[in-house]
Amino acid sequence: MTEPSSVSTPSALDDLVQPFQIEASALRGRMVRLGPTLDEILTRHAYPDTVARFLAETATLAVLLASMLKYEGIFTLQAKGDGPMKLVVADVTSTGDVRAYAQFDAQAVETAAEDIAIAPAPALLNKGYIAFTVDQGPNTDRYQGIVELSGKTLTDCVQHYFRQSEQIDTGITVAVDRDGEGGPWRAGGIMVQRLPEPQPGQQAVLSDGDEDGWRRAMALLASATADEMLDPALKAGDLLYRLFHEDGVRAWAPHSLRFGCRCSRQKVTDMLSRLPRDEVAGLKTEDGQVEVTCQFCSTAYRFSDADLDQLYGTAPGA
Fold it and tell me: What is the pTM of this model?
């Protein structure tokens, strides 16, 4: 790649996935830059900084993993545990819509602050697992991979999954921070994978120097700083060129990302219609209306008694 500026344009510095390949060793990779999309995901909730950082890492990993797959539908990364954070979820559609949320005990998170700073994954989740799901619609089989949590960070846990379950050498680095004191959230991530060994009858892709090439790629990947990955003025192509130009790096056109939630009033209405009216009435707020809030985007859907009469086709007690 002799013209790094050719792989990203000034209008696509953020909220993108940049596919690439390291030519010398035929290693494939993806780079993710998240700016306004991530900030919108996080600022829709009053997350403590420690939770916001963990959720940002989750969303970045979800995009990295989804971008390595060929699918039409939804890729979901979730982690469940019995610690201060009970659940963290991020999903990515094949068209580039990203959303995420976390369930947590605020007091427990505050109490565990020192442990979270050292090893966020075990401190927040304790014992649990991570799951990867690809859902391509009602007429297809859903794929799911599950592995127990193992590592100081969620990134460590994902790499453990690839070693244990997929047996694919995978290197990942992720950076998350605010752009200035109290500024908007940003995240960056780079993922490099060794291509699987060829099956009998297939042409070998990697040379006998695979190990040297892999170790070199991992050393170069580790040299990427958080400042570089989060710099809003540094193009993805420029950073990839800076890291891997001596081994040759080929980049393809980036894919755009955006915040997108799939909730709607109709979906909430359909969900309520499957519940007994007495149970739905228990969701009423002080003003007498039923309120259902989307966990992903915090949009509140409100239903009056008249709405419920129309939904159930009758007034209560009629």
Answer: 0.90
